[in-house]
């Protein structure tokens, strides 16, 4: 029996994570020197042949970066991140393609193993794929283009008729002065997507961007800018992954979302960064009168995360819903949550967040709700639940409420607990193994998030949970 138990544990320890952890060699790649200085910033801008105003923004951001403190003093330590050992630009040299057949074989193999072409054929109206610092593939269905929808690489759009629109929105919601890594992003950003949905247009199928960081000791700094005009409707999906290395990698992307009057935007994210990644991403939305913003977020990777999608409800009767789940395993310290700012009458928010931790992982849910003086009759509900899968893990909830309008209604609830032994015993009495029983409980806990995702992404999230749970046995 003892030998059988040892064999089972060894088998579990060898769970195949090759779906995400495979590595492609950097043969013939262009890689800028590690570290950050004006020469690197100018080289990135020159390579992309940018307009002068973008170079000015980069240099201004670099100056801000050097003047700001390295890290916040209220969250996980990022002492292991040394920018002198991070390359801010790595490129395979592949030209952006509009057909999978035109993508280089090694890169195409990467995305095929991640299921991107299948998803595009099944249910996506358009897809973009970024590999390290550059987009390598971008395509959109003709039907969406005929409705006037624009979905392209942001650098491509910067050289066309939408330069003025980008100029008026780029890093306006997330200025370089926001924090040190926003300034870093402003200085070295590369790649990302631009989406413009005209007034009244409803995009029936989702658009998707997938970001793959293959390079060792590098950073990825993509910028996503989405403008959904009055009365329009869009679902945008973001996927992220990277192989595991024994040195730090960095993700410091930026997402800016503009939701017009009576418009609706759903932004779904599944992140499976490797556990050597520092994920210091910034996402922010601005919602006008009667507009509606939805965030659906699943965070399963990285060594350290600081991630708080923020929403500014500036128009009367605008609303926002946030649904998120975080899974922190061994060696992970994930500080996630959201920030909501309500400044107009009859605005509403609903936050439902769940976190899991195992193997000594740390999961922190941090929320901030600010209700301004003019947000009359505003309503806000925040609910967070944490499930610890062992007695080595930790889970914290840190809510902040700043309510300056007496007619507003604001509520918060939080629960923290462990999987009940009685529940596991009951499920095992019905024929399940312990591993199956625990996975069923965790999947049930995560269901409010998975049911909000398209089928393929719900399956991916459940598979990620299954892998993490299997790795926890013994």
Rounded to an integer in angstroms, the radius of gyration calculated over CA atoms is 22 Å
Q: What characteristic shape results from the CA principal axes?
A: globular
| Major sheet size, sense and barrel closure | 13 strands, mixed
The tally of domains stands at 1
Helix count equals 13
Q: What is the average of the pLDDT values?
A: 82
Low-confidence stretches: 1-17
Beta-strand portion reads 25-35%
Helix share, percent: 25-40%
> Which structural class should the secondary elements be placed in?
alpha/beta
Measured between the Cα atoms of the first and last residue, the distance is: 14 Å
Number of strands: 25
Give a written overview of the molecule.
With 474 residues, this protein is α/β, with parallel strands linked by helices. It has one domain. Helix content is 27%, strand content 34%. Strands 5, 6, 8, 9, 11, 12, 14, 15, 17, 18, 20, 22 and 24 form a 13-stranded mixed beta sheet that branches. Strands 4-3-7-10-13-16-19-21-23-25 form a ten-stranded mixed beta sheet. Strand 3 (126-131) and strand 4 (134-140) form a beta hairpin. The longest helix has 18 residues, at 455-472. It is globular, with a radius of gyration of 22 Å.
Features:
474 residues, alpha/beta, 13 helices, globular, disordered N terminus
How is the topology of this model organized?
Layout: H1 2-13, H2 18-21, E1 30-31, H3 38-47, H4 52-67, E2 90-91, H5 105-113, H6 116-123, E3 126-131, E4 134-140, H7 142-146, E5 150-153, H8 154-158, H9 163-169, H10 180-188, E6 193-197, E7 207-212, E8 219-220, E9 223-228, E10 233-241, E11 249-251, E12 254-259, E13 264-272, E14 277-279, E15 282-287, E16 292-299, E17 304-307, E18 310-313, E19 319-328, E20 333-342, E21 348-357, E22 362-371, E23 379-388, E24 394-403, E25 409-418, H11 421-429, H12 434-450, H13 455-472
Helix pairs in contact: 3-4, 4-10, 11-12, 12-13
